[in-house]
Amino acid sequence: MMKNNSFGFLYEIIILIIKNCVIIHWIGCVFMDDTIVAISTALGIGAISIIRLSGNDAIKIVNKIFKGKNLEKVASHTINHGFIVDKNETIDEVLVSVMHHPKTYTTEDVVEINTHGGIASTNKVLELCLTNGARLAEPGEFTKRAFLNGRLDLTQAEAVEDIINSSTDKSLLLSVNQLTGSLKNMIINLRKDLINLMANIEVNIDYPEYEDAENITIKLLREKLIPIKNKLLDLLSESDNTKLIKDGINIAIVGRPNVGKSSLLNKFLDEEKAIVTNVEGTTRDLIEGSIIYKGIKLNFIDTAGIRKSNDLVESIGIKKSLNAIENADLIILTLNNNEEIKDEDKELLKIINNKPYIIFINKNDLESKINISNKLNSYICYGNTIDNNGIDALKNKINEMFSLDKILIKDSTYLTNARQKSLIKIAISQIDEALANLEMHTPVDIVEIDIKNAWNTLGEIIGATYKDELLNELFSNFCLGK
Q1: How many CA atoms lie within 13 A of 172 on its CB side?
Q2: How far apart (Å, rounded) are the C-alpha atoms in residues 249 and 411?
Q3: Which among 109, 389, 431, 460 is least surrounded, fewest beta carbons within 10 Å?
């Protein structure tokens, strides 16, 4: 029998061999020897604009157009006052931040020029950077370089975009949690468990005489794989709330013409967003607005009154209303308290029957003539849009239906987009395949293939393995200066 330290060395060699079976993103990384530039602030009139450069020649390029200290000699992470000049013409008074690699966002030399926030001066500074050797950055290229240079993994790169797009405190906190690496760390640990299994399988197959290695049996593989699968299932389940946190709840307000849909929208938004008249068919297109409730964005859509109509424009609006119902997360069906249920109302109840819905019986300040089934009582709220009666009850019903009070994101790990969820589902199916093969007493070297596939799939989530097309698609959604 070999000594423990000899086996340890062999174990490390096996792990390296397995790792080399896939493309690791830092192996053969593309060396980016050009320098990119972009405007990193919203273009318009404001206090300041920031033009950002990244690359080997970033400092050299800016130094050519900067009148002040020699930027190639200043200390890293300093702010330097001076002027941007074009030959003998002064363009703007600026502050220039110089940051030497590797302690920068991209791990390359980075320079940020803070100019006054005028459109003309900002564009002129950008133009001078381009004419002196920089290349205009592609959308998201700064973050792409941060990923390719090992500064961020893919989940953290996606979190950067999510932070920019966050519209609520909860969505911001969710994105910050991911940026700090909570998901990355979980995936790394799960991949470590899988690679340990693969290494032990290899030792058992090729070096059965070594007693130092854990004896891999079908029973042991099951005991090791099932907890990994359960962790992935928990991650998938806990991430069901992610869409609510990031995108909010899409709520379509529907009903016949003149039942108070637009008035209800205005009350939710606390503004006169939709035109309200006594004329049926006033709303002919979708009118949208949002509020923040319990830390979640509620996206309301006021739809055209649904009825049979020969009016071409109104018919188009009705078709859009039906599409809004199909795509909504929640329907608020508005009915008149002072009218009996009509055939159009019954038809709408059939249409929304398979969707989450609340019935709002409006105009409860008038004599009640409505005849509605007692079976629907748990879905009904009464009120009116004159004195806001029933609006709080509606909000409470939304809170109850979506458990908004229970959505906690502090110290939680979530999957934040369809790409991540899809890969987790694939990894689960690959582990299921391994478990099924174990049930059929398939040789462990065949089972190892399924385990390795799951390990590779999880690697795609954090970018340990990836395809160039994925990066191009992912970073193309970023704004230009990020």
Answers
A1: 5
A2: 23
A3: 389
Of 8 and 35, more confident:
35
Confidence band, pLDDT 50/70/90 cuts, at residue 351: confident
Cβ partners under 8 Å of residue 366, min gap 6: 337, 338
Q: Band the pLDDT of 473: cuts 50, 70, 90.
A: low
Give mean pLDDT, residues 369-395: 80
d(CA 303, CA 316): 11
pLDDT at 16: 47
Q: 3-state SS of 214-259?
A: CCCCHHHHHHHHHHHHHHHHHHHHHHHHHHHHHHCEEEEEEECCCC
Q: How do residues 80-103 score in pLDDT, each as one tens digit?
A: 999 999 988 999 999 999 999 999
Give domain 182-241+412-463's CATH number out of 1.10.10.10, 1.20.120.430, 3.10.310.10, 3.30.420.40: 1.20.120.430
User: How many angstroms separate the CA atoms of 433 and 445, rounded?
Assistant: 14
What is the reported pTM? 0.64
What DSSP element (H or E) covers 210? none
Q: Is the pLDDT of residue 29 over 60?
A: no
C-beta pairs of 439-444 under 8 Å, 24+ apart in sequence: 441/218, 444/201, 444/204, 444/205, 444/216, 444/218, 444/221
Checking phi first, is residue 68 left (phi over 0); if not, alpha (psi -120 to 50) or beta? left
Single out the residue of 104, 12, 18, 164 nearest to residue 464, CA to CA.
Answer: 18
Angle value at C-alpha 360, between 354 and 361, nearest 5 degrees: 125
Report which DSSP code applies to 40: -
Q: Does residue 426 have a pLDDT over 60?
A: yes
d(CA 123, CA 39): 8
Query: Structure tokens of 316?
Result: 């188009």
Domain residue extents for the chain: 36-137, 182-241+412-463, 248-406
CATH number of 248-406: 3.40.50.300
Residues 295, 169: contact at Cβ < 8 Å?
Answer: yes
Which class would CATH give 36-137? alpha beta
Rounded Cα distance between 247 and 265, Å, is 19
Q: Do 431 and 450 form a contact (C-beta atoms < 8 A)? A: yes
Tokens representing 177? Answer: 């949690």
Single-letter amino acid, residue 140: G
Q: Is 425 left (phi over 0), alpha (psi -120 to 50) or beta?
A: alpha
Residue 24 three-state SS? coil
The CA distance from 468 to 14, in Å, is 28
The gap between the terminal CA atoms of the chain, to the nearest Å, is: 56
Separation between Cα atoms, residue 209 and residue 222, nearest integer Å: 23
